[in-house]
Known about the structure:
The chain has helices spanning about 5-15, 15-25, 30-40, 45-55, 65-95, 100-125, 155-185, and strands at about 125, 135, 145, 150-155. By secondary structure, the protein is α+β, with helices and mostly antiparallel strands. It has a four-stranded antiparallel β-sheet, with no helix packed on it. Helix 2 crosses helix 4 and helix 5 packs across helix 7 (about 155-185). The radius of gyration is 22 Å and the shape is elongated. The N and C termini lie far apart (about 70 Å).
Amino acid sequence: MIISDPDLREHLRDLPTGYLIGLLTDQDTPQQGAIRGILWERGLAAAEVDAMIQRRLHSRLPPAHVFWQLGRKVTLFSTVLISAFNLYITYRLLNSDHSLRGLLLTITAGCIGIGFFLGYKLSIHIYQGDRQRLFCGFPLAVGFVDLESCQESTLSKIPMLLALAGNALVGLSLMLFPLLLIFHLLT
């Protein structure tokens, strides 16, 4: 199918497949033929698109963005709890005279480096965190793409740095928790 409006074609090509299926499911849009044409260009046959629409309509699960929102909240809550645990156990490790103290501190330094790398990877993760927007950064978004207008926006400098630091804290917590839990169980 050829779409006559080149701007509409480019706009639809930029949107993720799941969002296009959601548009076909949620409302009777005048762009339905154009959306199906883009899905056909991506290699999805009409029967596959219809099956995906029916599966979405009859699913008892909420849309994916609802799970992402819940995941963000659970991750932030868990990070706060795990960070408090990590700080307490790190303090105990620094003040202990355990025979494995030097080895554990060395491994902790390595985990900190890997945790910052993981935080960087979390900061560039892209997902549909809202019904109309793609988020960049998990669990704290550093930028957004509006799926209706395809306009990108980022946070201003200070909030972006705080979001990057928060994502780094998540990465650090994930990396340090198993090691510090082992130390806690050994002592």
